Amino acid sequence: MARFLARRLIHAVFVVWGVVTVVFFILRLTGDPAAFLVDQTATREEIAHARHLLGLDRPLYAQYLDFITSVPRGDFGLSIQQRRPALPIVLEHLWPATAELALAAIVLATVLAIPLGVVAATHRNGALDHLSRLGSLFLQSMPSFWLGLMLILVFAVALGGLLPAFGSGSLRHLILPALTLAAAPLAQNVRLIRSGLLEVLQQDYVRTARAKGLAERGVVYRHALRNAAGPFLTVTGLSLGFMLSGTLVIETVFSWPGLGRLMVQAVPGRDFPVIQAAVVVFAVLFVAVNLIVDVVHGLVDPRARVA
Amino acid sequence: MAPWLVLLVTAVLVLLTPPGAAAQASTVDGVTIDPDAELVVALADDTNNMDPRIGMGSIRSNYIRQVFESLVDVDHAGKPVPGLALAWKPVNDLTWEFTLRRGVTFHDGEPFNADTVLFNLDRFFRRNLDKHGVKDVAAGTSFEKVYPFVTRWEKVDDHTVRIHTSEPAANLWDFIGREPLVPRAWTVKNGVEALNERPVGTGPWKLVEWKRKNHMLFERNERYWGAPPRMKRLRFVIIPEAAARIAALRAGQVGLIEAVPPLDAGVLEREPTLRVVSSVQKLACRIYLNGRTKEAYESGGRDGAFADPKVRLALNLAVNREAIVQKIFHGLAIVNASPVATVAYGYAAQEAYPFDPARARALLAEATGKDGPPSLDLLFPTKHYGQAFDETVPAVVEMLKDVGVPVNVKALDFGTLLQTLTKGTLPPNGGFAACRTSNNLDADDFVRDWATTTLVNWTPYPPELMTLYQGTRRQVDPKKRLALLADLQRRVRDWAPVVSLYQEVKAYAHSTRVLRFTPTQELNMDFRGVALKK
Questions:
Q1: Which of A272, B319, B395, B496 is the most exposed place for a label (fewest CB within 10 A)?
Q2: B59 touches B259 (CB < 8 A)
Q3: pLDDT (tens digit, 9 = 90+) per residue, A194-211?
Q4: Per-residue pLDDT at A210
Q5: Å from B265 to nearest chain A CA?
Q6: CA distance linking residue B431 with residue B410, whole number of Å
Q7: Which residues from chain A sit within 8 angstroms of residue B212, using beta carbons?
Q8: DSSP assignment of A188-253
Q9: What is the pTM (predicted TM-score) of this model?
Q10: Mutate to test the interface with A, among B455, B469, B511 (most CBs of A within 10 A)
């Protein structure tokens, strides 16, 4: 297990370094942040002066060396737009806002998916199964910005302000954005659990359990579901990436003050330090969650450790 | 009580009443108001900085001007009025004098006086920063480069400042006077970084809480030199999506929203609990064309294809602006053939470019002969200036094609456009769609567009127009200067450096509980005088 973990950790370091390096160079192909700092009537000299103040007139390799040696210390430089250290800006948007939203959505997408997937599998080709299929299709097909706006119109406007239309800070504020963010992964999870369960329910040991006289509920939840959980676990880990990218849209629609909205504003403004810090945080989170999933998967199924 | 005693007591009470308290009437327009209320305003974006030196763009200005004030204020009709200066005048061709308002203090109690102004001038022009012990910042406008003719400034007395120039500077009252002023002692003590966190100004609102990208909370400045605000708190919340802003207004979560899309404005107007108001803005949207000579950009040895004014005039005649205003903006835009915004000081109305495709074709044929009109590679920044702009540009492209100009549209993000303009790599037959606005009041901020090589100047003034432009800057006599500005605008209209599209009218919607909200023609909203029904 220790070797398995060490191997995974080394992979993780390389992945994060690769992401950081690619982002550093790609960003510099996309434009010059100095042009955003000056008026549109600025002359070339004024832009050059702004570039100098930002240190962007130095050779690219020197900028990269500075950057890559500063990253381990958590120093990503000053935000070009806000003139404050970039990492604290990213972290204050990640915690609690984005973390709260992503966790709530993952919990919703997991907790709701299990009973719904089980019902769909145990009522195969019945009315409930068809309903579940239609619901999943709907939730996966709807663009999240549209779904978010519809939820706002229904719960904040039509129902007389039952839930707030925007903002953060309370459980009431969390409900609509979390539901919107959870919609597509929930649908995916329901279908995964259904198909996994259908396969497992055909296995001999399930027939044996039934033959022993176990209640159907026990058969499904204690025996079949645990064995059908492998792909579901893996996808839940991967869905964190979806959640984090999904926050870009959801946080904008609901004015949620998280990392997604920060990115939406930092990218067009070419705020290199903030984008770099946010991408590193995203990458570390994504790698960490997948590492945890690998470990859990390895614990549940020893064959996975070898793979 | 004897009548004389009543009069005496009344007089004493009046004298003891703090300035502005008389304006704290409990009714407005016969309606009882709530002086302890909080108005929540939904805005599309947050400011990145509160230090005015860093920049005063269209978003930032709205936040900064609630806290900070400038020497020259502006009324709702866009006219310059006394702000922190009671008066300003040229004392000779090379000197301007500002008489400062007395009894003004910053939110922390620091007095506003001539030393404040000198300190701010030092910051504008990057002088004596070491002496003050404050850092330089990457500023939106480099005063020392844009206005190199401003040579020195001096304190005449505690409430009089003189600014000297090496050549006459007719619009100095504007480019100095409209800059927000920060406190001297507070900035020296706390550093320029603190100006970006929780700054203190002289404005009607004190900043009490700023959660970035979420909200900014202001409280009434009880010691404001003018009439203090009629509500206790003002909260700016950030709701980027227009549809979500409208939903929040309808749900009663916010009292006022900005930037209502033209299509929604008509719908909201019909709702009995809401009111839609609008004001003409300085935002002028245009198509800029490459008319630079080959030395002035990364040309590959070719002059810009749109150097001939006849070609540019022809393109202007090909655009049906009335249709754009009616069909896309539903009336929330205006047509303006002057290079100066209609609400700027010195604007002179110009004859609109008629929509005349036949004449456009004839002019193109006359100018280009058998070669035919040049094709136009148009850079189109999307999702930056609003949905109506994104609809307008494709419509204009079709109009240009109708008169025989082949147009290749390249949609890109605003940053990529800026990069092209910064590098000077617009193709010889290139152009770009963009809008420009102004934080100043004077026409100069618009007509200087073609004077020096800048991001937006791709058709520099020919010598005769340059001479005329320089004349407008040096003519200090207001009447003569207005005449020169009018002449310049007429000539620029005929010379047609850009294809003018429209000037924006900005719409706001608010609940009927909000009283006396009048949108300004500036980049900021003004909440002085606004009240909330009890």
A1: B395
A2: no
A3: 888 888 888 888 788 888
A4: 81
A5: 17
A6: 10
A7: 82, 89, 257
A8: HHHHHHHHHHHHHTTSHHHHHHHHTT--HHHIIIIIIHHHHHHHHHHHHHHHHHHHHHHHHHHHHH
A9: 0.84
A10: B455
